[in-house]
Amino acid sequence: MSENATEVAVGGAVLAVAVGFLIYAAQATGLGPDTGSYELRAAFRSVEGIKLGTDVRMAGVKVGTVTGLSLNPQTFMAEARFTVRDGIELPDDSTVLVSSEGLLGGNFVELMPGGSPFNLEPGAEIEDTQGAVSLTTLLMKFVGGAAGDALKDGE
User: For the whole model, what pTM was predicted?
Assistant: First the structure.
């Protein structure tokens, strides 16, 4: 009987550790319930590199997370929903853009506050947006431009 009791105790401990790990993972990635924040919306031409749980930053500091992405079938724009920590009041002329951490880094959503005396209400939409810039497209323009310059020089 003591073998069964030991097996049950070890199994219970493994289960408790697994549940604790799942709770920690949900909180660390921002997918768990987040109290103390409000939601905003924005429509982008492209949200390439952004997914659920992506950081929302202001001045390099994480202030929220992306909570939803969808395609608007009427405008063909990507609609993003994201949270912002309570206590951070954004002016209603703020800008939101998809930024990159560097050449090989990931993307994040960056908030740039405006100068209006009026603040965005929870659930409001930020109108001024800038979508992701595709690295492949930039490289193709550079290579295409360099080839075009070489042809002009040869004429």
Answer: 0.67
